[in-house]
Amino acid sequence: MPDVIIVGAGPTGVMLASELRLHGVEVLLLERELEPSPMVRAQGIHARTIEIMEQRGMLDRLLPQGQVHPTDRFFAGIQPSEPVRLDTTHPYVLGIPQPEVEKVLMERAVELGVEVRRGCEVVGVHEGRDGAGVELVGGERLQARFVVGCDGGRSTVRKALGIEFAGEPATSGWILGEVELTATTEEVSAITKRVRETHKGFGIVPRDGGVFSVVTPADPPSDDTPPPTIDELRAQLTAYAGSDLGAHSPRWLSRFGDATRLAEHYRRGSVLIAGDAAHVHPPQGGQGLNLGIQDAFNLGWKLAAAVRGWSPRGLLDTYESERRPVAAEVLTLTRAQALLQSAEPGPRAVRSLLAELMELPGVHRHLIDKVTSLGIWYAVGEGELLGQRSRDIAFTGGRRLYPLLRSGRGVLVDQTGSLTVSGWHDRVDVLAERSDELDPPAVLLRPDGHIVWVGDDESDLEEALLRWFGASLSGPAAANGA
Ligand SMILES: Cc1cc2nc3c(=O)[nH]c(=O)nc-3n(C[C@H](O)[C@H](O)[C@H](O)COP(=O)(O)OP(=O)(O)OC[C@H]3O[C@@H](n4cnc5c(N)ncnc54)[C@H](O)[C@@H]3O)c2cc1C
Q1: 276 Cα to the center of ligand 1, angstroms
Q2: Tens-place pLDDT, residues 357-401
Q3: Which of 280, 304, 318, 364 has the greatest number of CB atoms lying within 10 Å of its CB?
């Protein structure tokens, strides 16, 4: 029996699977589709996700496949006169199609020993006394200690748990796909330019091998709207461009809308949800995939602690209390951006006023810190650095911080050289080196790189270790109260 069953091998599920494997957790990843999806939804990753990729050693695989773009226009496409200065060693957007990101995530998951079963559709979830389980199409039942639904916006797991998905249904919709066209590239470019003057949601971009990426407005979708057909795409192209441009031979077609919803809870007993299963929002600003990967990064080590038996009481609940407010903020941010990109006179007036405000010191940075997730701060205690993620820093000996986080363990950076984590050495590494980029004498980082303690007092440090990493090996048995 696996420790954890993850439903859905999208970016959230695969990232979570790898995070769990870093701690030796047995993971079974179930995916409905037989093959990886070719659909290019996300077009890139933001600074915090890039940092996470570096912290887990995947950035070297992603960088050669991507293109580096400035983050400046990433709030509603507004371009202030001064470039934004972000507090990170990766102050850019990495343009890279979602299937490429998913490929790298999956390669690493397989290297780490994740068991992946494709062609397995989960149709039910059940909770038992000692854990939870799933039912597959055909009736097979599988059991584990925990089940995590990473099964996208229409999540079967979330619905099976009866968790409310409160929010607004889609009011706008689009069809997205890759097709061949009989129209020439020049004709397509002239038509696209003309249609975009009145409909910003229309776009056609040439890809390799005579294939074009197409997006065109369509009716707002609901949960049971069937996938689009080539005839529907042709009809929408005709409606907006005056011609179907000879669209044929679709490589893939999909539809999406601007529904904005947030799950009421992220956990019920031994079943949790993450990624799009927990939140959906308009694609403006490009945050959904980033949010899902960051959910997984927050949840992985906490769920591993529960499985491995060292979880301090209440740790797993901090997944929801930390990540749900982050998602609520992304919903606000994307909804605002969707409105600001409307061609209506009211939103245009707000947009021009906001563009003026974004020239004031700090305003542009504040908004881009939100879009990139660099500004995320968890309520772990009082103090300037507490709850923030640590930026990458260099040590005087030549080492850097982020590679030290690769194993997924906690890290104590001790510039005093006198602190110890002896009872926690199985969960926390120590680096006793100095850095010109670090003010406090010592900091304790969780496995997700967030700072949970600063200071130089040994007994104060022990309290923080107990709170975040459970009982010491030499102390009384762990509270083990996931
Ligand atoms: C047009 C568009 C553009 C976007 N652009 C961006 C962007 O630029 N940046 C960004 O960050 N995000 C973007 N997003 C959002 C991003 O694509 C999603 O947020 C992201 O894919 C969510 O990942 P996930 O793993 O949570 O869910 P998904 O990617 O939806 O993966 C869920 C997986 O679960 C599987 N599954 C579903 N049900 C079951 C079941 N019952 N049993 C087994 N398996 C199941 C599915 O087959 C799928 O593989 C965009 C989205 C759209 C539509």
Answers
A1: 6
A2: 999 999 999 999 999 999 999 999 988 899 999 999 999 999 999
A3: 280
> Going by CA atoms, what residue is nearest to atom 19 of ligand 1?
288
Positions of E strands within 290-414: 410-414
Q: Is the CB of 135 under 6 A from ligand 1?
A: no
Segment 134-161 shows an average pLDDT of 97
List pLDDT tens digits, range 214-225: 999 999 998 889
Ligand 1 pocket residue status of 275, Cβ below 6 Å:
yes
Predicted pLDDT at 480? 47
Give the pLDDT confidence score for residue 478 in this predicted structure. 44
The answer, yes or no, to whether any atom of ligand 1 lies below 6 A from the CB of 284, is no
Q: What CATH number is given to the structural domain containing 415? A: 3.40.30.120
- Residues with Cβ within 8 Å of 457's Cβ and at least 6 positions away in sequence, in order, are none
Enumerate residues 6+ apart whose C-beta is below 8 A from 243: 183, 191, 237
Same domain assignment for residues 130 and 157 = yes
For residue 397, what are the domain limits? 377-482
Cβ proximity of 420 and 430 under 8 Å? yes
Q: What pairing do the DSSP bridges indicate for beta strands 146-149 and 4-7? A: parallel
Task: Please tell me the distance between residue 353's alpha carbon and the centre of ligand 1 in angstroms.
Answer: 34
Q: Is 294 in the pocket of ligand 1 (CB under 6 A)?
A: no
